[in-house]
Amino acid sequence: MSAPRRTVRLRLALLYSGLFLVSGVGLLLVTYLLLASGFPVVQLRTDVDGVSRICARQDGTVALGGEFAACAADARALLDAQRAETMRRFLLQGGIALAIMTVGSVGLGWLVAGRVLRPLRTITATTRRISANDLHQRLAMTGRRDELTELGDTVDGLLARLESAFTAQRQFVANASHELRTPLARQRTVLEVALADPTPSVAALQAVCRRVLAAGEQQERLIEALLTLARSERGLDRREPVDLPAIAAGAVRARQVPGRRVLVRLDAATALGDTRLIERMVVNLVDNALLHNVDGGTVEVTTGARAGAAVLAVANTGPVVPPEQLDQLFHPFTRLAGERTGEGLGLGLPIVAAVVTAHGGRLDARPQAGGGLRVEVELPAG
Fold this sequence. Notes:
Elements: H1 8-37, E1 45-46, E2 53-56, E3 62-64, H2 68-116, H3 118-129, H4 147-196, H5 202-234, E4 240-243, H6 244-254, E5 261-266, E6 270-273, H7 275-291, E7 298-306, E8 309-316, H8 348-358, E9 362-367, E10 373-380
Parallel strand pairs: 5-7
Antiparallel strand pairs: 1-2, 2-3, 4-6, 7-8, 8-10, 9-10
């Protein structure tokens, strides 16, 4: 047979009664000592010249001279007996009263503990009912501000963050499914059209193959971007010194777009982190600045060191970015003006933000006055 579960309420009730018992025992002991020290001694009187001694007996007679010693001994014995009996009765009655009050304190402690823990039971019951489908529920604790209401507010904050994360995850899955479905549908349509042609030519079949390969490459880029995003959000497995100017120079050399001018100023800067993730971050920033630009526009790429951090800044002269839409650009599959179609995968800047967060860095994005975007990244220096 298992022992009864020792709940917090039971432990608090026992604690309250235990403290009451200890305090009662201490009070009883102090009272006992004060009472014992307050008993009077036998009072003897002497006459004026200090020679004669008188002792009053219990029956009211007075003992003089030689009878004084016996009378005094009887008085002391009687007083000692009275004191011992009084102290015994005091301890007995005080102990009985303390035992009764201790038992009562257990019940009172049980009631008080239940009242104190009532908000905690409410928090527990409500939290147990909440699941992934109703994360919008909140505890909404009311009453006096104390530790339990602060706990309720903390749980509400946690539920809000979980709701936001679940919503973002569902949106991410829906967007990823849409983005993956588009090239698959394109491939299927192209293949069905080719198969419906009874006399296809070699050139037509080659064109179909090229279109299918292009759709496959788009899927590969999307899957690679999704894997990079997931790896960034997971965190870093290791950190090593990374030459930020060298990575930026390589990204600029490998990605030249006709009609776009790239200006570089690469000062020494060594970051501490994952080389592949930082490379992907730099490539995404350069690609985004080149892709979302205007004909004849420019892209500026600069690196440097500042206050113990490696700094990378990429700016372009693209279209005007409304400040209220700036945060949306860092959400997966979200493009300017809320469009879900257009150039790019919609994962470039979200990957940049995830990489910066994984490295414990800082990201600052600001719209340019004449159009375009300037993104500055600070990473821990190596």
